[in-house]
Amino acid sequence: MSLIDRLCDARALRQRIASSRDRLYKVALAWSGDAMVADDLVQETLETALAKVHQLREVERLYAWMYSIMNNCWRHYLRCRRPDCELDEEQFAADSDPEQLSGQQEIIVHVRTAIARLPVGQREVLTLVDLEGFAYQEVADILEIPIGTVMSRLSRARGFLQTALRGLRSDAVAGAGRLRRVQ
Amino acid sequence: MHDEFSDTRLHAFIDGQLHGRDRERLLAAMESDPVLAERICALQRTKAWVNLAFEDARAPQHPLPRTSGGGRWIRIFGLAASLLLLASGFLLGWLTATSPEPLQRVVLRDIEAGHQKVLLHIDRADRARFDEILDGAEHLLRTYRNQGIAVDVLANAGGVDMLRADVSPYAERIARMLRDYDNLQFVAAPIPCSGSRKRASRPC
Lengths: 183, 204
Hints:
Chain A is mainly α. Chain A contains nine helices and no strands. Chain A folds into two domains: 1-84, Rna Polymerase Sigma Factor, Chain: A, CATH 1.10.1740; 92-183, Arc Repressor Mutant, subunit A, CATH 1.10.10.10. Among the domains of chain B are: 7-54, no CATH class; 117-201. Chain B has helices spanning 7-14, 20-32, 34-54, 71-95, 127-143, 171-180, 193-201; strands at 117-122, 150-155, 184-188.
């Protein structure tokens, strides 16, 4: 491969990193439940990735590598924030009252609230699989846990969500599509 | 009802992680087992809820630091260019060693306070920062020329290198500025960095 090709590849790689802000943000928001924390996590991840891009050996693993960086930033944040709390037991309280909302927004708040109530470990696995579509082995590599743990956490997380969202199916969805007459 | 399909296997199926014969068997079983089909449907619904909840989440946009692209090759070229520059500098220095010309008006003393004095401080050999300082000094001196303003550019620690005639890339510009503005002086200060910061933060 010529030098020019290599330089073009490096430039394209940096552009891919810079343009992955939104996809990282969704997962960061699901992990933290806080827009500002998610914003900080993503910015720190992008800056670290750009600074260390020369360390990336397999370009096809770019996003898994970036999520590993974000996981490190997230762990650091949790250690600083609640040093004595077991990470797997960490929970976040909902900051909105779903009853004040309606329709589509209500569904989103309900689901996000339910996800926020999951232990951190389950939340991480669930969002990497569902939002990013990573394979179980990739999730295990990103989070540095055994693949069996990935599967069991995923199973528990979905079991909890199925129960938590059961009431949502009829009420909220019906409300989301309802038309109202305006005087 | 097919009890041989565990929850873990069903999760693997909806996540596209079940392959080959296992996948075929599960698909076939779903056709004849409505309970199994409902379990899978419920899991897929949950997965869809999660996606829906973050579908419209958009990150605020912030600038990212500009770092040198090109990775290893750029660094190799950078190193080669640095070596070439170093060799050129060495050669130039050797050729001009017989007639060194230090900056005449760089003084080594403490800052004096004055009513219209502005103090600009540099404590590291940072060219971008020093460019800003020189631009700022010129702007002030031009804009407030008639108000009797005086500008002191204070350098300490690594910032002193910016004033040294033998290493500073700004020797020419500094000499020109000193010719153009009577109320400008460059000061190499023998005070520690923290002290200078405190002093610079006080209004003169």
